[in-house]
Amino acid sequence: MENAIKQVVKEKYTEVVKSSQSCCGPDCCSPGGVDFSEGYEALAGYNKDADLGLGCGLPTEFARIQEGHTVLDLGAGAGNDVFIARRLAGESGRVIGLDMTEAMIAQAQKNNRKLGYQNVEFVLGDIEDMPLEENSIDVAISNCVMNLVPDKDRAYAEVHRVLRPGGHFSISDIVLQGELPPALQDAAVMYAGCVAGAMQKEDYLATIERAGFSNIRIDKERQLHLPDELLLEYLSQEELKAFREGGTGIFSINVYGEK
Fold it and tell me: Which domain holds residue 250?
């Protein structure tokens, strides 16, 4: 099951590279479409070619990246957050972008060649089993990716392993309050679109705590909206009405934690 989920995610995100659209754009998710991303355009280091609209927050906003830091972006995509982090870490810093999708790594490397950064590296790898040394990272960031990982306990344990003592993470992700209808939970495109793989907020925070992190807090939270036309791809009118009246909330959070 886990391998099947990862394969779906790889396929959907490969399509994103080919179409240069968000995974929840019209060609990749549904005619209705949905976009959870926040605007990057005003941030120093922003590169339009690297922005595929796949995020649900601005993790660098709260990442406390300092000059000289070694930064790891989990699920780096085409490099959007990597290039923002690189501006913050400076010439003396180092930024590593990790992604499990070959097409994303290729696109990110292409973008970096255009920019000419010598202290940026993109690595093909799995968040649940990172090809990185322990205690080697100052700051880990991620933007709407951890919810795509089937084994979140293992993923956060890996984040804890690679962070240096005193290191920290700033991760944007999607969480739930209330239950999604089964039809949405089972929809592969909703999984790749960052919804079906989302955990209950309290369970998500508990996962981080089990991994050994401290000073865990939510720096930012905003409620997200799925349009009716998208939901009707999977739900009947009656199911949609019950979902709207059931009080289920889908939220983007930016969570912080320290090792």
Answer: 2-258
